[in-house]
Amino acid sequence: MKKILILLICAVLALSLWGCGEEKDEELSQESSAGTFRFSTTDFEGNPFSSSDIEDSVLVMINMWEPWCGPCVEEIPYLAKLYDEYRDKGLLILGVFSSEDMDSDVEKLIEECGIHYPLIRWTREFRPLETGYVPTTVFISGKGEILTEEAIIGSDSYEGWKALIEEYLEKVKR
C-alpha cells in the first residue's frame, strides 16, 4: 500500500510539472501553416484589434497565457523588456488571454508586471495555434505567415526568448 501511495504521489508531481493544461497535438495544423493566420478580436480595453493591426510589424510573437498560470506571469517582465528592446526592429508581442472573468487579475498584472505590449482576447480563430497548455507561443510574420513549425509550450528565460526573437528576425529578413 505504501508503494502505491508513493507511486501515485510521484505521478501527480510529474503531471503537475508537465504544464498548465490538457494534452493536445503540439504541431500546428497543416491548414494553418500552409496559409496565413488571420484574426479579429478586441484588446483589453475593448477596442477592435485584428490582423490588419500587425501588418507593419516584421515579426509577431503571439504569447497565449492566463492570469492564473504561474509560469505565464513569471515571464511577463521578460516579454515587456524584450518588447522595448526589439520594437524598433519590427517586433510586436501580443499577449492573448481568454479568462474574461479574471479581468481584474489581468488589470493588476498590467500594473505589477509593466505590461505595455498589446493584450488581446482569445477568439476561436486562435484555435489552430493552441496546444492545450499555457503559456504557448507562436511566431508569425506581420503578413500572418506562421513561422513556428511547432508551437512553443511553456515559459522561457529572457535569454531564451531573446535568442529566438533574433533567430526569427533573421529568417524574416531573408
Termini distance?
A: 61 Å
Instruction: Supply the CATH class.
Output: Alpha Beta
Helix content: 25-40%
How many beta-strand elements? 9
Class of secondary structure makeup: alpha/beta
Total number of distinct structural domains: 1
Low-pLDDT ranges: 2-19, 21-34
Helix and strand run: HEHEEEHEHEEEEH
Topology-level CATH name: Glutaredoxin
Q: What is the strand content? A: 15-25%
Cα shape:
globular
Based on the structure given, which CATH architecture is correct?
3-Layer(aba) Sandwich
Radius of gyration: 17 Å
* Biggest sheet overview: 5 strands, mixed
Total DSSP helices: 5
Description:
With 174 residues, the protein is an alpha/beta fold. It has a single domain (22-173), classed as Glutaredoxin, CATH 3.40.30. The protein is built from five helices and nine strands; from the N terminus they run αβαβββαβαββββα. It has a five-stranded mixed sheet. A two-stranded antiparallel ribbon has the order 1-7. A two-stranded antiparallel ribbon has the order 2-3. The longest helix is centred in the first third of the chain and has 17 residues, at 2-18. It is globular, with a radius of gyration of 17 Å.
Question: Descriptors for this entry?
Answer:
disordered N terminus, two-stranded antiparallel ribbon, five-stranded mixed β-sheet, alpha/beta, 174 residues, globular, Glutaredoxin, 5 helices
Q: Mind sketching the topology for me?
A:
Elements: H1 2-18, E1 20-21, H2 30-34, E2 40-42, E3 48-50, E4 59-64, H3 70-86, E5 91-97, H4 103-113, E6 119-121, E7 133-134, E8 136-141, E9 152-153, H5 158-173
Parallel strand pairs: 4-5, 5-6
Antiparallel strand pairs: 1-7, 2-3, 4-8, 8-9
